Amino acid sequence: MAAFLILISDGASAASVTAAEALQLRDEVKEMFYHAYNGYMDHAFPLDELRPMSCVGEDSLGGYALTLVDSLDMLAVLGDREKFFDAVNWIGKHLRFDKNKTVSVFETTIRVLGGLLSAHMLVSDQATGMVMYDYNDELLNLAEDLGRRLLPAFDTPTGIPYGSVNLLYGVSEDESQVTSTAGGGTLTMEFGVLSRLTGDPVFEEVSRNAVRGLWAQRSHIGLVGAHINVLSGEWTHKDSGIGTSIDSFYEYLLKAYLLFGEDEYLHMFKESYKAVMRYLFKDPWYMEVNMNSAVVVWPLFNSLQAFWPGLQVLAGDVEPATQTHTAFFSVWKKFGFTPEGFNLASMSIQPGQRSYPLRPELIESTYWLYKATRDPIYLDAGRDILASIQYGCRCPCGYCHIADVETHQQDDHMESFFLSETVKYLYLLFDLALGGDNIVENGPYPYLFSTEGHLFPLTPQISLPKECCTYSGSFCPDSSKSNWMLHNATNHVDAGSPLKVFLLPYS
Ligand SMILES: *[C@@H]1O[C@H](CO)[C@@H](O)[C@H](O)[C@H]1NC(C)=O
């Protein structure tokens, strides 16, 4: 099977994707989405996730119809009003969070809170074409209820939240004091938007304090570790990298700035980015190093690192992004998938890290690089990735994880992020090649993606700093303070094109 797929890849690279083929590929991605979505709805809903090989459901996270909530804005991207409205209606009527369930603060925020908020902003806004007339803020009310149930996790001396919280009873006495940097530092977009939509500042404040708590513990060379004690602020795992356990901490520093226009986040992003490029970047790869000494501990590519080139595009640093994408994609081509870990010293799979759980990060970066450069090699890469998933992962009721990227043995699991991210970025890639007739490229606002691929619009209500906006719709008088204006003025990677691309010229 591996050899077969590599053959496909090599054969495909001979001829670049044409417009006719982009259309066919986009339709194939759409069919992929519905195979997985309908499989979930028919066999697993309202449980959290589908087991796509045995065609049954399981409550893998909080028992809150996870895959449905995570899929909402993809239905909107596809313009599927019927299924979108059905889903919104069901959620408004039936979804409840008063459950005796201990859930991950991070996963619940990015998947469920983010899914509810993005869908709320789509369904309640005339300008999106997805408005539902009998909608009464049901999703926003659910998001607020969920947000309040997560708040007890933030009651720590450092401001960094515990990793898990019980939705009914708060933080349990035997909850671990250790959490990951990504877990504490990837909440600002969702919590900030929740504050701006409800008018209650508490959510934005706790998520900002969590980032400040992490930032305060950075090493003298500006690096953060992977795991930290939320009570003492001591690092319990001092490896610094851009992948596992840290990745979206960096992502949300930049995106929180882009969304809310607060200079503090931009400053933290720039300082962190400088440290990463100085100590972790070994062109074109990234190492895991000790956060204090910068000594390399792991010469390892892990598949979560693959989001980084996409983030670099957002930061306006496209050149190193192209180099790194080429290197990461070479690992994909070698196996037909990226393994969770690939050792760069031995150039072989890291023992125990042989799986590919349908992760989106490489295709996400592929989309961003195509958007920034319009180089057709990124469409070719997308075609290869699509072919691998189609031939390797498709199973009776959805798409299966790959347990081992060498044998391509399938695993009976389908993470909800396959629908909210992997399929979404593939769809957007090929649709962009056809002109980008979708809400992300052509909608009423520029959209940012959360780390779960959810759509967050830069509406004046959300993206204007609070101090200069009374929510009356009036713009901030000082245009340098208005993020909304900043974007409309400076994001012109493809000047002359109506498409909006976020680029923050990196300096
Ligand atoms: C909550 O759930 C836990 C674990 O399932 C259980 O041990 C506990 O008794 C439940 N608490 C209540 C009050 O139902």
UniProtKB/TrEMBL annotation:
Keywords: Calcium, Endoplasmic reticulum, Glycoprotein, Glycosidase, Hydrolase, Metal-binding. Pfam families: Glyco_hydro_47. Its EC number is 3.2.1.-. It comes from the Eukaryota. It is found in: Endoplasmic reticulum. The active site is at E107 (proton donor), D247, E340 (proton donor), E361. Its cofactor is Ca(2+). GO terms for molecular function: alpha-mannosidase activity; calcium ion binding; mannosyl-oligosaccharide 1,2-alpha-mannosidase activity. GO terms for biological process: carbohydrate metabolic process; endoplasmic reticulum mannose trimming; endoplasmic reticulum unfolded protein response; ubiquitin-dependent glycoprotein ERAD pathway. Ca(2+) binds at T451. One of its GO terms (cellular component) is endoplasmic reticulum quality control compartment. Its main location: endoplasmic reticulum. Belongs to the glycosyl hydrolase 47 family. This is alpha-1,2-Mannosidase. It comes from Selaginella moellendorffii. The lineage of its organism: Eukaryota, Viridiplantae, Streptophyta, Embryophyta, Tracheophyta.
